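We were asked to recover a plausible sequence for a given structure. The inputs and outputs are reproduced exactly as logged, with field labels preserved.

PROBLEM: sequence recovery
POSITIONS: 146
GIVEN STRUCTURE:
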């Protein structure tokens, strides 16, 4: 996985030309006498002093990323949370909100599914006195810690 940092700036045309000499420019939009320029700021994409050859960076981004493992963990979390949703529905509970790592119900799940230290179980962290769930990961409420 390559993690490049990009930057966008509104600059003068002269500054834009300086940026083009050093960085890989991905987009330029003219704004009257100024330019909106987007470019990659990763040193791996910087030109050498002669401007002819791309240099490999000695300051590369951390390489400790693995998309496949991240996707597998997220997928497994969704499988587990969906199992808890089915348990909630079978227990006549209402599901107000859920995400890969959380489940908000109108009442607690049966105690055999709650364990704060066992992997694969849920932890009862809060009781919501009043909540507004407007979109995924967009909610507000009055929470009481358990």
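RECOVERED SEQUENCE:
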């Amino acid at each position: 996985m390559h993690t490049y940092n990009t930057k966008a700036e509104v600059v003068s045309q002269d500054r834009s030309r300086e940026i083009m000499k050093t960085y890989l420019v991905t987009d330029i939009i003219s704004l009257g006498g100024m330019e909106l320029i987007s470019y990659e700021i990763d040193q791996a994409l910087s030109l050498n002093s002669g401007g002819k050859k791309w240099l490999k960076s000695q300051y590369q981004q951390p390489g400790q990323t693995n998309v496949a493992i991240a996707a597998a963990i997220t997928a497994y979390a969704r499988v587990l949370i969906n199992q808890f949703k089915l348990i909630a529905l079978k227990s006549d509970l209402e599901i107000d909100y859920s995400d890969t790592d959380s489940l908000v119900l109108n009442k607690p799940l049966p105690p055999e599914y709650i364990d704060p230290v066992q992997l694969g179980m849920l932890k009862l962290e809060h009781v919501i006195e009043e909540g507004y769930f407007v979109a995924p990961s967009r909610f507000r409420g009055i929470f009481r810690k358990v």
